[in-house]
Amino acid sequence: MLTMIQFSYTAEAAQNLIKNPEDRSKGVKALAEKLGGKLHSFYYTYGDYDGFAIIELPDNVSTLAASLAASNPATISKIKTTVIITVDEAVEAMKKAHGLTITPPKG
Questions:
Q1: Is position 106 within any domain?
Q2: Residue 107 falls within a domain, yes or no?
Q3: Which residues does 6 contact at the CB level (< 8 Å), separation at least 6?
Q4: For 32, which DSSP code?
Q5: Which residue segment(s) compose the domain that 15 sits in?
Q6: pLDDT tens digits, residue range 40-71?
Q7: pTM for the model
């Protein structure tokens, strides 16, 4: 299961990284590997989040565990976890959805 985890550092964590620069992708890689997965990419960004990682994990429980472990309030001020759907999976879902309907609520 591919997952994107977006994160923002606390002001204190950002200042610590300025004082002592380090490659934070190593910690994310180790975390993913402990959960039976792997880190695909790690980037810093402008905007609402300071960066994101694309990780592959075996299941939803591992994905939630990674997000919870990364949510250290001394380091991370904001985190967002998004499951990534491949094009092949999306096409499979489109085929499965074909002909399905749901009764709308009565109003």
A1: no
A2: no
A3: 48, 49, 51, 52, 79, 80, 81, 82
A4: H
A5: 2-97
A6: 999 999 999 999 999 999 999 999 999 999 88
A7: 0.85
